[in-house]
Design brief:
Keywords: S-adenosyl-L-methionine. Belongs to the SAM hydrolase / SAM-dependent halogenase family. Strand 13 and strand 14 form a beta hairpin. The protein is α+β, with helices and mostly antiparallel strands. 19% of the residues lie in helices and 32% in strands. It has 5 helices and 15 strands. The protein has a 7-stranded mixed beta sheet with strand order 2-1-3-5-4-6-7, with helices on both faces. Strands 9-10-14-13-12-11-15 form a 7-stranded mixed β-barrel. The protein has 2 domains: 145 residues, Rossmann fold (3-Layer(aba) Sandwich), CATH 3.40.50.10790; 96 residues, Elongation Factor Tu (Ef-tu), domain 3 (Beta Barrel), CATH 2.40.30.90.
Length: 258
């Protein structure tokens, strides 16, 4: 890769923290290319951050360095982590954030990061530890020179669905900006397009039609579909399903024939 690519994912929103990280990276390697995945992960929501990283990493060129910072444990005993996989490098806190993506690609080496800025703070390792580590990696520094090897790191599993007696039991794993609700289910056994199914949510039971895509229903209709990531999604056409039905990450949903 002529110009090394560094991709950033955080829960920093519009605050200045992202700019500070970019400034550190470019001060160390002015040739680095920096791509923003998103900085709108809900604050301290490690599960959502991990889901987004896993969903997006494979679409980047091999050799991309991912810096993910959703770090409610910053300044505590949690380790700063560097994972080298078959195709990528992942930098971030050892709180499960990196694990689903890195493990899917196949972890080859793991290190507790031992580099950082001289003025290391207790509250901003994104700037003081993770950004410098990524910048050094982008210069071609070997991962083994940036820390000490570790044999274990914190795992974080993306929930899976189960089917019992024709009922799909799943969890909400992600809510996108349109309010579309990704469940952990990957299919609707026995259902055909056009079928109307009952979805049990914490706010009650709703009826949703199983469709191929949003345009197969009218505005305001509740639908179920398999989305671009392969998850069974609950949506309201031209609306917001999460808001309408009070759903958030981690909630249980049950889907059955009405």
């Amino acid at each position: 890769m002529e110009r090394p690519l560094i991709a950033l994912l955080t829960d920093f929103g519009r605050d200045y923290f992202v700019a500070a990280m970019k400034g550190v990276i470019l001060s160390i390697n002015p040739r680095a290319q920096i791509v923003d995945i998103t900085h709108d992960v809900p604050p301290q929501d490690v599960q959502t951050g991990a889901f987004v990283l896993k969903a997006v990493y494979r679409w980047f060129p091999r050799g991309t360095i991912f810096v993910a910072v959703v770090d409610p444990g910053v300044g505590t005993e949690r380790a700063p982590l560097l994972l080298k996989t078959r195709g990528y490098l992942f930098v971030g806190p050892d709180n499960g954030l990196l694990a689903p993506a890195a493990e899917e690609d196949g972890v080859l080496e793991a290190y507790r990061i031992g580099v950082g800025l001289p003025q290391l703070s207790k509250t901003f390792h994104g700037r003081d530890v993770f950004a410098p580590a990524a910048a050094y990696l982008s210069l071609g520094v070997e991962p083994r020179l940036l820390g000490t090897p570790v044999a274990q790191w914190r795992r974080l599993e993306i929930p899976e669905a189960r089917v019992e007696d024709g009922v799909v039991y799943g969890r909400v794993v992600y809510v996108d900006r349109f309010g579309n609700v990704y469940t952990s289910a990957r299919s609707l056994p026995g259902a055909a397009y056009g079928d109307v199914l009952c979805v049990e949510t914490p706010r009650g039971v709703l009826r949703a039609r199983y469709v191929e895509t949003y345009g197969r229903a009218a505005p305001g209709d509740a639908v179920l579909l398999i989305n671009s990531e392969g998850y069974l999604e609950l949506a309201v056409v031209m609306g917001n399903a999460a808001s309408a039905y009070g759903l958030k990450t981690g909630d249980e949903v049950k889907i059955r024939r009405c």
